[in-house]
Amino acid sequence: MRLALYVTCLVDLMRPSIGFAALRLLEAAGCEVVVPPAQTCCGQPAWSAGNRGLAAGLARKAVAELEGFDHVVVPSGSCADHIRNVYPRLLADDPQWAERAAAVAGRTWELTAFLVDVLGVASVPGEFAARVTYHDSCKGLRGLGIKAQPRRLLAGVHGLEVHEMADCEECCGFGGAFAERFGETSTAIVERKCDAVAAAGTDAVVGGDLGCLLNIEGRLRRRGDESTRGLHVAEVLAGPEPA
Questions:
Q1: What would the CATH number be for the domain defined by 127-238?
Q2: Per-residue pLDDT, 243
Q3: Which stretches of the chain are DSSP H helices?
Q4: Which of 55, 112, 149, 191 has the greatest number of CB atoms lying within 10 Å of its CB?
């Protein structure tokens, strides 16, 4: 099975270790993984800002780069949702691209959903002696139905304890440009999330979208919490990079 790993902008620029962790997980599951070298943004920020032309251009670029693979795997519920659910609508009226976009969308998966729902992975290589809680990102949960898959995989990590926080499905307040345009509202939302994380009494908050994790961890630091980490689920499942 030959896969394209679509690493996403945030992972590429802010925490490449997530991309390498996803690569290790997929290769451990027996997949041939290719990282298309020319990949850029999926176009979600442009789409959210109402710039349909730019969003469509980025969608065509991504489709052309991703259509030669058996599946496309994305370590982000947000970007996977955009490719899977927005691309077919965005390019529906383009006779040259509509069918191609729909085909790529149908083969695109968020990482944990692919591991569980497509490959049937039951064990992962990571070991992690810690207590963690899980944050459900909005697009992954509501757009793709990702809920049980990451928890099933985390349950197989040796040494890991998962403790559910209250209101784990509530938004973290990030929402891309929302956090910048509506700063006070965003801060109030992430404050509630941080209260829930603190009450869970864990070493880390784990999630499937780096944007959420950066937002939560950043607010925790501003509150004076210097120890609770924001970890992507791929980092926990794959374990540390080999020396």
A1: 3.40.50
A2: 59
A3: 9-14, 16-28, 44-48, 52-66, 77-81, 87-90, 98-106, 111-113, 138, 144, 148-154, 178-181, 183-200, 210-222, 233-238
A4: 112
